Amino acid sequence: MLELRDIQVTRGDFILKADLAINPGTRTAVIGASGSGKSTLLSLIAGFLAPETGRVVWNGTDLTESAPGKRPISILFQDQNLFPHLTAAQNIGLGLRPDLRLDRAQQDQVAAVLAQVGLAGFSDRKPENLSGGQQSRIALARILLRARPILLLDEPFAALGPALKSEMLTLLDQITADMGTTVLMVTHDPNDARAFAPQTILVDDGVAHQPVATAALMDNPPAGLKDYLGLP
Ligand SMILES: Nc1ncnc2c1ncn2[C@@H]1O[C@H](COP(=O)(O)OP(=O)(O)OP(=O)(O)O)[C@@H](O)[C@H]1O
Question: Which residues form a coiled coil (predicted)?
Answer without folding.
Answer: none
